[in-house]
Structures
1.
Amino acid sequence: MNDELKKLTKEQLIELAEIYSKDWLACDGLWFQAVERRQGMDGAMDCDKEIWRSFTVIEAKRIKEFLGLPDRAGLEGLEKAMRFRLYANINDEEYIREGDQQDGDRMIYRTLNCRVQRARSRKGLEWHPCKSIGEIEYADFAKVIDDRITCRCISCYPDITESEREGCCAWEFTLRSQM
């Protein structure tokens, strides 16, 4: 452990977590753009899918362990875990639970302000066609938290099906009770 971290206040640690999250996203975007320049969007997307198949599972397992979640943590556990993802530190998002108040059987996750699409727009780049990545990322993250949870895209570029804000996405998570 870095002894300097132990000297920081809670506020400084929170600020540093946000900085680390921004740095992670910048690194992710920079490598993607480098591959995109060399191999085009399709080549970059192939690499991105491969990376997210592994990274999302690693991130979910570490968060699940950190939070002490049970094997089948349900939608409550999924929401709690998602609030600790690196993205949660830098994107505005909302969670809407539907169904039974206590356990719920459906949850909508919506990104309200997507840093990736904003950054690409600022740079004059085409939007990142992130739906196919999200289908891997969100579904696999949810399965680590609870293998009964399924994930469905409601709206994500290039398939914006709602009046989503500037390319932001929405995903539906459903807890299957018959398992």
2.
Amino acid sequence: MTAISTIRSGTLLTHDIEIKRSRFIATIARTDSPQDAQALIDAVKSEHPQARHNCSAYLIQVDGRNPHQHSSDDGEPSGTAGTPMLEALRAAGVWNVTAVVTRYFGGILLGAGGLVRAYSTAVSEALALAPRAELRAMTVLEAHLSPTDAGRIEADLRHCGAQVLDTQWGADVALRIGTDASEVAFLQERLAQLTGGVAEFQMAGATVVEVDIPSPQA
């Protein structure tokens, strides 16, 4: 699994635009399965029962399986809503995201081109507001440390780029970190330096870790 660009876990936001008196409300959320995506679509439809259209699209990557994609025009002319929404997700390079655009008709027809632009713009602008993250496949390493040294060692490993997954305090401290496979040897050597050769990492499997991506404005 290579790194997957997405929006942060738990993200759920809305963004409104108005075009020729029609109101387009984009709702986007992090969804890690088709079931999560459908739950969001159903929730938005329930929230806006009077809306003329609740169009939707999603791209979902589940490790080890074929990607899932979906688009629905929900009564709009074929190809004018769901497909441009899906293309907006692709253009943003994000996966595991569902977009639903609710339209309240304002009485003025927009034409096919106008609808394509409206639905695409609603999703693109909403995505621009969403905090970004990456899902990265990482090797899990575990070490047992002296409680007197654990805090210092954990801080040093974080500074080296390791993702601290879990710290369990007891008679000793069980520290689990995630790292890229190419960094395992370096972190083994670093831990040996920090503990005078007393502690070493053991391989503890693999996991997928979400890593926040700072916004350009940060």
3.
Amino acid sequence: MTCGSEQEFVKTEIAERIATVTIDREAALNALNSDVLGELECTFYGLNMDENVDVIVLTGAGRSFVAGADIAEMSKLSPMEAKAFASKGQRVFDLIEKGPKPVIAAVNGFALGGGTEIAMSCDIRIASEKAKFGQPEVGLGVPPGFGGTQRLPRLVGRGAAKMLIYTGDIIGADEALRIGLVQKVVPPEELMDTAMELAKNIATKGQVSVRLAKELIDRGMDIDLRAGLELEADGFALCFSTEDQTEGMSAFLEKRKPDFKGE
């Protein structure tokens, strides 16, 4: 993986320990081609390692979040090239999902195919009232390839996922909220403020415990309840060796705001 200092399609701004990542390929409705995926990989690899970032907000430029994978590029792929393309997208989305820091998707418009898939790799999804979601790949003669067949049923249930994937139907933000695909729907003009307010709220908490909670939730989804509870107890105990735990409980008892250091 080679990361350049200047990126053409993925822009990052950092302020108040929050990174705002904007996919900016507006002429193509932010469709994901190999170049965009490569820039996303570099961006999230760097942010996951950046000690000055606690929370990440991901959005798209213009009227689209991500309109999908780039069909013009995909249409020319051989079977082996298609496998490599799908694997690259899955690797990038895994980097987002499994990274240590909370990622909030601010879905401003079209989130179709790869757009729904990248949103699902984020921890929390806030949608504009104008957002549209769907997995329309079967209309192109292929199933989802960037994780849709795996993440969607885990989020909305097997039946709802099968209906969306089999039909390729596009749903609005309210229906996405109803089935649990997104956590909140807001007017378009309030989207980024809402996402940033949430990010700032998370950033004020003890980051050791926030990151550990993310790991416990995600790892617990893949194991049985008893094993998950044991994992949780171990994580709970581990935090009693941190300065954040001492500060958090001391601040509560002293009736003041905690001053967490992330240690």
